[in-house]
Amino acid sequence: MESRARCARSRSSRPHIWLLVLLASLGPSSAGHAQGYQLWLGYRPSRNLARMREYAASLLPMVVDGQSSTFDIVSGELHDALESLTGRDFVLSRPPPPKPQLVVGTRESSSTIRSILAAGELAPLGTDGFVIRQPLIEGRRVTIVAANTDVGALYGSFALLRELQMDRPVDSLVMTSAPRVKRRILDHWDNLDRTVERGYAGRSLWDWATLPATSRRYVDYARANASIGINGTVLTNVNANARVLTPEYLAKVAALANVFRPYGIKVYLTARFSAPIEIGGLTTADPLDAKVRAWWRAKVDEIYRSIPDFGGFLVKANSEGQPGPQDYHRSHADGANALADALAPHHGVVMWRAFVYSNAVPTDRVKQAYDEFTPLDGQFRSNVLLQTKNGPLDFQPREPFHPLFGAMPKTAQMIEFQITKEYLGEDTHLVYLGSLFSEVLKADTYVRGPGSTVARVIDGSLQGQTETGMAGVSNIGSDSNWTGSQFNQANWYAFGRLAWDHTLTAASIADEWTRMTFTNDPVAVRTIVHMMLVSREAVVNYMTPLGLAHIMGTTHHYGPAPWAKLARADWSPVYYHRADSAGVGFDRTAEGSNAVAQYAPPVRNRYADRSTVPDSSLLWFHHVGWSERLRSGRTLWDELALHYQAGVDTVRAMQREWNSIRGSIDEQRFTQTHDYLAIQEREARWWRDAVLQYFQTFSHLPLPAGVEPPAHSLSYYMAIRCPRDEHKPRCDGIP
Ligand code: GCW
């Protein structure tokens, strides 16, 4: 990665960049793969020499027909990638090659592109979309990558390179692509002391001590994000520190914004609601107070003076102890609008989180956000986006979709996914989240009849919102592999791809990522993709099958702790599973908390009725007797036990699959994953044994045939402790 970025920078002074093929050689340059630092951008040369020749013949020489720092990046990227993928060395030269095979640019920057594409053909693609075409020019088939903006051309170039990395033929490339949501954002939960809340990949990338001095790592971060279409980054934790809004820190933020800008990435910050008091010297942060409003206006003006394209604020208010408008008896809309009014003249936005918590313990925590926010529909300014977690609880291995989606037609709604696997085995467990993300996006809210998917709420096509966005809580840190494990990279990748186009399937994204990251060997690709696609259901099975939730350790969220009971009831696993001698599960029907009423009628009825609720959400909505028969004909107890066993068995199958591809990829990445799978298998058993033994104290039923007996007593599992907030939480004493 480093060499490429250096290359891009060294060219930045050239007015036009013409790349000419000079000589041929077949030298793979794969240094840096082994650690995983290259992510999916390693540009491994194909093993298929005919394919490499085809790429050289079809795409070289090439021209990046435009001048800007973004076009410099495009040139550097295409140059380095094509050198590796074609096996030909280029040098930069002027004048341009007379007959380029590949032309990249915009209508404005390139006369070739103007001559091929009418303005009307590009206009619908907006600022970020692109087309790839292969018209005949003077009898030659030429590949063009065209967009309305330089950044669109960058996205198009990465799309072309994706095709090549997948070893696909380039003789009939036609692509038209534009993102379905406007803001595709990573939320970093990074603190100013470089710790990362729920981060499992080392320290924060942002080195506040040395900023505004910048480093290569920032460029590489921007490049990776641009390659998957991510166009925004919230640098700081939602549990916010007002200091980031002081002049000293804003200078550091501006330095990052300068690095990210040519990659099309805007910087956003978290705004601590009490900042006017903490750093502004005011005595109140009441959003309707004139001095408070003036303070925010002045602060925002100050930010835009050094960061003219600043994206805006992300705010967590009145949740888990964070300050907010309710401290002043104002509504969330009052709070959001005060900031939105300050940002509006600069075209900035507020992303206001719907993840709220009342101070009093509620009858059902999952109902709070809906109850709090739906009455405010229509009260938010047009530059406010309500940012809602994918499910109503908290990033569990599986939750039903959040009932707020579709329930606020006059409000722009963003979805927040969690890429960092706080509740799904953190860094070590191999869990591909593409499946989770697309399951939620495809879920049908029925708010406007069938086909009212969450994705269509988010992209604005269902209810007509024009501000649209998707956020992912980042899993990125200072580790050499970026994300704590090789396979966690796939979750960053999948988030970006789905934010760009939610109609992509989890399987096709896994296939792309595998080919780009590891290999095009068909057997290895099939094997790895299969492992990825079964991995999400595996973690659901060995952690929280049949709609169970939040039965993990109460602070670290790592291992099982269904027995845990905290002073605060709604942070306690026992609050969520409600196991007793009769059965297990949270009754959210009309007889219980009636959370089910927050969904549109067809969904509500389906979930409320024991005969139609899917098994995967059964215990989320119903308290079910241990010996009651499920659809399978088995009792709940047997079904539960078999799901836990299936989770363990799937991890074992994943281990066998991984072992079968040894030799198809580099040994270093093979070994890390191999070793992590061993941890995952051990911990899947830990989950199965601990949870089943605990529930057995209520059910008093024997384990069904096919379920392995636990290795240790329940008290043994209960004694295991995991340290809180340690970089890599590990729990001693697991068998
Ligand atoms: O799930 C909880 C996490 C907190 C997090 C919070 C939130 C940033 O355990 O660490 O705080 O969600 O999303 O605000």
Question: What is the gist of this entry?
Answer:
By secondary structure, the protein is of the alpha/beta class.
Description of the molecule:
The protein is of the alpha/beta class and 735 residues long. It has an eight-stranded parallel β-barrel with strand order 10-11-12-13-14-15-16-17. Strands 3-1-2-4-8-5-9 form a seven-stranded mixed β-sheet. Strands 6-7 form a two-stranded antiparallel sheet. Helix 11 (332-343) links the parallel strand 13 and strand 14. The site of 4-O-methyl-beta-D-glucopyranuronic acid has 10 residues, from loops.
Any idea what the shape is? Answer: globular
Helical fraction: 25-40%
Identify low-pLDDT runs: 1-31
User: How does the helix and strand content classify structurally?
Assistant: alpha/beta
**Share in β-strands:** 5-15%
What does the main sheet amount to? 8 strands, parallel, barrel
What compounds sit in this structure? Answer: 4-O-methyl-beta-D-glucopyranuronic acid
